[in-house]
Design brief:
The chain has helices spanning 3-6, 23-42, 67-73, 79-95, 99-118, 123-144, 153-164, 173-187, 252-256, 264-287, 301-309, 320-330, 380-403, 412-425, 432-443, 445-453, 458-470, 497-515; strands spanning 19-22, 52-55, 61-64, 146-147, 188-190, 195-197, 202-208, 216-219, 221-223, 236-244, 292-295, 313-315, 334-335, 347-354, 359-363, 371-377, 405-408, 476-478, 485-487, 494-496, 519-522. It is elongated. The chain is of the alpha+beta class. It has three domains: 20-146 and 408-518, GroEL-like equatorial domain (GROEL, domain 1, Orthogonal Bundle), CATH 1.10.560.10; 149-219 and 371-403, 2-Layer Sandwich (GROEL, domain 2), CATH 3.30.260; 221-363, GroEL (3-Layer(bba) Sandwich). It is 46% helix and 16% strand. Bound molecules: adenosine-5'-diphosphate and magnesium ion.
């Protein structure tokens, strides 16, 4: 045992390849990595934000304005940067929108923290101050928030439109906003105390080839497949529907069995055996008295023929998610073994063929409340980005219906809360006070970047906004189209309070997590991609991110 150990000193034994960065260097390394991530998404913020084109290692292209999608696709190879990406993911899970805001604010908190660190303020004081500020900020958001009636469809429409502004969904935001509000109200259940929204009853289906304005909301579900046989009926009203998760094929084991055929009659026997097995499966289906079979797996040609002869509509290789959704709508069981099937497993509804869309529409009885939103767009890239925008909007509308609190957007809420935080800072003792002020400054990043991305002067905008809020105009925000400071709530820029609170929480937690680290010990080079030997990340080059695999300089 070594001398130092004996004296009670900790000793760290490290291998040759391992690296260690401590104190200021560690903080600098981490902060710059985190800030680099924030910088990457900033230019997409707001209605005038630009899109990013991401090319993955397979050459697949994604064009998006969605913060969390950008960060996920970037395939960033740096442990600190990954912590920031987690902020976006948490925000996406908890609020469905506001991911760019959360990440950009986290980056700005760290930038301001860096200034404080340079003034020799201890990280612990900054962390404490940020924590206090974040708690206070959330309270202020709640205080500023306005209560809405969950039935106020005009307001919900504004919430949906605000969320879609600047996204691929924007061009048809009125029509889509209407569909989104309708969809959410169809799956919302109001009780005395609260309104619940069950998003499991809402299905999104995308289709290429037509324009977004032709998107529609359907009661029930859809199955985007063809009947397995031309002679089958295509539309069946009052159908008894079997949802099957078992192949109507000869069982695998028999296919693999080696058969030694010594004379032709044996072969014939073998074929007959297979036929008998298929016939049995078909008979099991017939015994249930089903009119329609949606099968998640395959259906053998022979079985298709038998089913067609019996006038049954059968569809194979239906998506698992569609089968599950149909099971909700039709109140049907998903049968995974035909040996145990009975009539009680069937569901009831109408199956209607739409020849233009080449899809089946499936509706249950009147009290079934599942709906399907069919999103249309010219090409796959267009529909994909449309779907991202619409999903975010669905989340914010449902969160507004559930939570009932909204705030004015366009930077209004951020400037108001920053203003109040500066007052609050006066009551905070010591160095923490500076951190609270730094936190307030960081919130104002939102209007600054909104202005910047709209080609406006961010300083002028901020000065004007601050003055309006000093005068008590709580809803004063930036109209990015005119450059004027307006009542953004009246202008229809409305966001759920819950998403703002969540953005504050996630941004603060991420910043504090990064600030708490004063020592980086890495078993190898400082990158998370172990197989990447030509990647940067030597002790000398640690200022930036450990490479962005697959980005190919697309940004
Ligand atoms: P995030 O991923 O954070 O939701 P977005 O790109 O969707 O990022 O931008 C959201 C920001 O844009 C919010 O601060 C919101 O208030 C603002 N915003 C949305 N629509 C408008 C508008 N019409 N005018 C001004 N600001 C807007
Ligand atoms: Mg958004």
């Amino acid at each position: 045992m070594s001398q130092r150990m004996a004296q009670g000193q900790p000793m760290i034994v490290m291998s040759d390849e391992s690296q260690r960065v401590k104190d200021k260097d560690a903080q600098e390394y981490n902060i710059s990595a985190a800030r680099a991530v924030a910088e990457a998404v900033r230019s997409t913020l707001g209605p005038k934000g630009m899109d990013k084109m991401l090319v993955d290692s397979m050459g697949d292209v994604t064009i998006t304005n969605d913060g969390v999608t950008i960060l996920k696709e970037m395939d960033i190879d740096n442990p600190t940067a990954e912590m920031i990406i987690e902020v976006a993911e948490t925000q996406e899970d908890e609020a469905g929108d506001g991911t760019t805001t959360a990440v950009a604010v986290a980056g700005e908190l760290l930038k301001n923290a860096q200034d404080l660190l340079e003034q020799d303020i201890h990280p612990t004081a900054i962390i404490k101050g940020f924590h206090l500020a974040s708690q206070q900020a959330r309270q202020e958001v709640d205080d500023v928030a306005e209560r809405v009636d969950p039935d106020d469809e005009a307001l919900l429409q504004k919430v949906a439109e605000t969320s879609m502004t600047g996204k691929g969904a924007e061009l048809d935001k009125e029509h889509l906003g209407q569909l989104i509000v309708d969809a959410v109200s169809q799956v919302a259940v109001a009780s005395d105390e609260e309104t619940l929204v069950d998003m499991d009853f809402l299905n999104i289906e995308t289709q290429t080839g037509r324009s977004a304005s032709e998107s529609e909301l359907l009661k029930g579900g859809v199955v985007d497949k063809d009947p397995v046989h031309d002679d089958m009926p295509k539309t069946v009203e009052d159908a008894k529907v079997l949802l099957l998760n078992e192949a109507v094929e000869v069982e695998e084991a028999n296919v693999d069995t080696e058969v030694n055929v010594t004379d032709p009659s044996q072969l014939q026997q073998f074929i007959e055996q297979e036929e008998a097995q298929l016939q049995e499966k078909v008979d099991q289906i017939l015994d249930t008295d089903a009119d329609v079979v949606f099968c998640q797996k395959g259906i053998d040609d022979m079985a298709q023929h038998y089913l067609a002869k019996e006038g049954i509509l059968a569809v194979r290789r239906v998506k698992k998610s569609d089968i599950e959704f149909l099971s909700e709508i039709l109140d049907a069981a998903i049968v995974s073994d035909l040996d145990d099937v009975s009539e009680a497993d069937l569901g009831f509804g109408d199956v209607t063929r739409d020849d233009e869309d080449e899809m089946f529409y499936v509706t249950g009885d009147d009290d079934a409340h599942g709906v399907t939103l069919i999103l249309r767009g010219s090409t796959q890239h267009v529909v994909d980005e449309l779907e991202r925008g619409v999903t975010d909007a669905l989340d914010v509308v449902s969160s507004t219906v559930r939570d009932g609190r909204v705030v004015a957007g366009g930077g209004a809420i951020e400037v108001e809360v920053a203003n109040r935080l500066r007052d609050y800072a006066d009551s905070v003792e010591g160095r923490e006070q500076l951190a609270v002020e730094a936190y307030a400054d960081a919130l104002e990043l939102v209007p600054r970047v909104l202005a910047e991305n709209a080609g406006l002067d961010s300083i002028d905008t901020l000065v004007e906004l601050r003055a309006a809020h000093e005068d008590g105009e709580k809803r004063a925000g930036l109209n990015v189209f005119s450059g004027d400071v307006v009542d953004t709530f009246d202008a229809g820029v409305v966001e759920p309070a819950h998403a703002k609170e969540q953005a504050l929480t996630s941004a603060t937690e991420a910043a504090n997590l990064v600030l708490k680290i004063d020592d980086i010990i890495s078993a190898g080079d400082l990158s998370t991609d172990k197989g990447d030997d030509d990647g940067p990340g030597g002790a000398g080059g640690m200022g930036g991110m450990g490479g962005m695999g697959g980005m190919g300089g697309a940004m």
